[in-house]
Structure formats: structure tokens, C-alpha cells
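Q: I'm building a small set of examples for a reading group on sequence design. Run inverse folding on the following structure and report the sequence directly after it, with nothing in between.
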């Protein structure tokens, strides 16, 4: 007979982190590739054409910082797990799929932010792009918690704190998507403000009962 732990992997998370680092590197590189070289026309010179790309520059910086934050936190996040299993690996793949998707809504935001008729849709789509990795991150955490994959030494109040933090983070992006239907600029301000908030160092793990 097989037990419920037969599909767990005791070797840790090193291979997952190595693969994840590769996806992060590719996704963060694709952000700049999405900014095309401008082609001046008429009496507008290259300087004006480059200046006109300011929405793409802003979207690039915002997405670069967000992916960088996920990359920086991914290593410390995975230090909280003692073991993995098959579905844990799949959830991490889904999370990485959301990370790899980010260059597309970033390019859409940069292209349509100045278009008053399409701005709401562009910002809403971008907020949705930020929501996807947040949902993936939360799913990994909730599954690991439910399956006892976490380090047993972690203090219960610390585990609860992270659960609340990840749920609220996901909720903020849901709000940003909803707000985009009313005000694109307000929704974008939520995304920018929340990204800046996550630049603060994360709380150190607490161990013990």
C-alpha cells in the first residue's frame, strides 16, 4: 500500500529554485524587449519619439521592480518549506507561468496608457496581470500549509501573519482590477503604491511555539 506521503520529496527545494530563477531571468529580460525602437516621422525627431515612449518606460520599471521583488522573496519564501510534493511543484509552475506572462500586459499598458478610449482596459488588464502571480503565490502557501509541508518549527502566529498578508495582497489586486472600471489612474496608483510598499524588507521568520 502507498501512504499519503509517498509522493513527497524530501530533498528540499533547490531544483525548484534553480528552475524558477531561470524563468524570472527570462521574464525580466523580455520586459525591455517589448519596448520597440521608435521611428521618427515628419518634423518630429528621435528625441521627441523617445520621449513619447514614457508610458512604456514607466510600465517597464514597475514590472521590473515587481518581478524583482518576487525573485528576491522567492528564495526566502522557499526556505519556509521542509519538503515538497507533486502538486506543490505544479503550483509553482503555475506561479511561474503568471510571472512569464507579465511582459504582455506590461507592453499593453505602455502602448495604450495615453489612449483615453482604451486606458481603462489597458490598466485593468495590467492589474489582472499583477493579480495572477499573487494568486499563484497564495495558492502555494495555502497548499503547503494544508499539506504540512512547512517547517514545523515556524511559530503559529508567524504562519497566520503570512497567511493574512498573502490574502490581503491578493485582495488589493482584485480591488485594483475592479477600480480600473471606474478610474484607470486610481487603479494604477494602487498598483504602484502596493509595489512600493513591497520594497520594504519582509518580516524575518519566527520559530518556536
Amino acid at each position: 500500500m502507498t501512504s499519503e506521503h509517498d509522493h513527497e520529496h524530501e530533498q528540499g527545494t533547490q531544483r525548484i529554485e534553480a528552475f524558477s530563477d531561470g524563468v524570472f531571468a527570462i521574464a525580466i529580460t523580455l520586459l525591455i524587449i517589448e519596448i520597440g525602437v521608435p521611428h521618427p516621422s515628419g518634423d518630429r525627431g528621435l528625441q521627441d519619439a523617445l520621449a513619447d515612449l514614457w508610458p512604456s518606460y514607466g510600465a517597464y520599471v514597475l514590472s521590473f521592480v515587481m518581478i524583482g521583488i518576487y525573485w528576491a522573496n522567492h528564495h526566502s519564501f522557499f526556505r519556509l518549506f521542509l519538503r515538497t510534493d507533486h502538486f506543490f511543484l505544479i503550483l509553482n509552475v503555475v506561479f511561474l507561468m503568471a510571472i512569464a506572462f507579465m511582459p504582455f500586459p506590461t507592453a499593453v499598458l505602455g502602448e495604450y496608457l495615453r489612449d483615453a478610449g482604451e486606458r481603462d482596459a489597458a490598466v485593468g488588464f495590467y492589474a489582472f496581470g499583477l493579480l495572477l502571480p499573487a494568486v499563484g503565490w497564495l495558492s502555494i502557501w495555502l497548499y503547503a500549509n494544508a499539506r504540512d509541508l512547512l517547517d514545523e518549527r515556524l511559530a503559529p502566529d508567524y504562519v497566520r501573519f503570512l497567511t493574512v498578508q498573502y490574502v490581503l495582497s491578493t485582495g488589493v489586486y482584485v480591488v485594483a482590477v475592479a477600480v480600473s472600471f471606474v478610474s484607470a489612474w486610481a487603479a494604477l496608483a494602487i498598483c504602484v503604491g502596493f509595489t512600493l510598499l513591497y520594497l520594504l524588507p519582509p518580516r524575518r521568520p519566527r520559530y518556536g511555539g
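The chain is about 70% helix and 0% strand.
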